[in-house]
Design goal:
alpha/beta, Rossmann fold, 7-stranded mixed sheet, 8 helices
Length: 315
């Protein structure tokens, strides 16, 4: 079978990222009409021939989450009905990922529901980055290429001049990620124990590890209200941390998060453009994952391995 032609399309969730991905690999962004009817229903029309083509649809399911998710499902369905040979849903940010288990009675597992919806719509492959938990890959019965933003972060960290650096997890759940960062960077490791009081309020209880006089790097996969990060930063300051930076793969900053970041407890928040982020005077540095995703798209199209994309430069 001859290699199928690469076609890349995007919804409206993060068009600048899709355009940057296409520029990084020298491919044009496909023409598609993605709008809404007056009643709010999404309308999609692919304006190019995709019959027998290898189609990639880029769409982060960030706010407005439900709208962007349905937009993605409709685009996949349109490509399937237009006889695309293979349809890869590219989700730089996979929404609903935190509801990945039943931790209370009578609650859904929406991470699995979204997986079912993507497959039912016609996706034959998934490309995503920094899922909230690794087990979500098992919710799919189609291939999942799971990338990590860590190589992009490490390239940034290699340029930083810091002494006595300590990597810290803001909660127990992120300990594995923090340990991996500390191991690769060859630095110390710490942990903040927390208690969540509500969806927006978090209380830090204790710090495990030595942080006095150190430059602390908090690592996490997602922040919305910045509650976990700010609670961790507060107790780290109380324990003598000299400076505090946070590296977070996905930032969905609401008004509450913006107010919290203005208080100065965190010196710098480093994130990626997996979702649209506007620093607006906040101490936020946005790193691009366009090249990483672009290389993955090329390798999937040519049936090559994506393993080399996990290699870290500078450490």
């Amino acid at each position: 079978m001859s290699e199928s032609r690469l076609k890349i399309f995007t919804g409206n969730s993060n068009r600048p990222l899709a355009e940057e991905i296409c520029r990084s690999i020298g491919e044009p962004l496909g023409e598609a009409t993605v709008t809404s009817f007056p009643d709010g229903e999404s309308f999609v029309k692919i304006n190019e021939n995709v019959r027998g083509q290898d189609v990639f649809i880029i769409q982060s399911t960030c706010p407005p989450t439900n709208h962007n998710l349905v937009e993605l499902l409709i685009m996949i369905d349109a490509a399937r009905r237009a006889s695309a040979q293979r349809i890869t849903a590219v989700l730089p940010f996979y929404g609903y990922a935190r509801q990945d288990r039943k931790d209370q009675p009578r609650v859904p597992i929406t991470a699995k529901l979204v997986a079912n919806l993507l497959v039912a719509a016609g996706a034959t492959r998934i490309l995503t980055m920094d899922l909230h938990s690794q087990q979500i890959q098992g919710f799919f019965d189609i291939p999942v290429d799971h990338l990590f933003a860590s190589p992009v972060f490490f390239e940034h960290f290699a340029k930083m001049k810091t002494e006595n650096l300590v990597v810290c997890s803001p909660d127990v759940g992120g300990m594995k990620m923090a340990a991996a960062y500390a191991d690769i960077m060859g630095v110390g490791l710490a942990l903040v124990a927390k208690k969540r009081k509500s969806a927006t309020k978090v209380e830090a209880i204790n710090v495990v590890g030595e942080v006095a006089g150190c430059d602390v790097l908090l690592v996490d996969d997602i922040t919305e209200t910045a509650g976990t990060l700010i609670a961790a930063a507060k107790i780290l300051r109380e324990h003598g941390a000299r400076s505090i930076r946070a590296a977070v793969s996905h930032c969905i900053l609401n008004e509450l998060a913006i107010e919290r970041l203005k208080n100065g407890l965190i010196d710098e928040l480093i994130t990626t453009n997996s979702t649209p982020v506007k620093p607006d005077g906040l101490p936020v540095t946005v790193l691009s994952i366009a090249s990483l995703l672009g290389q993955a798209i090329q390798r999937i199209n040519t049936n090559e391995s994506v393993t080399s994309l996990f290699r870290v430069k500078g450490f």
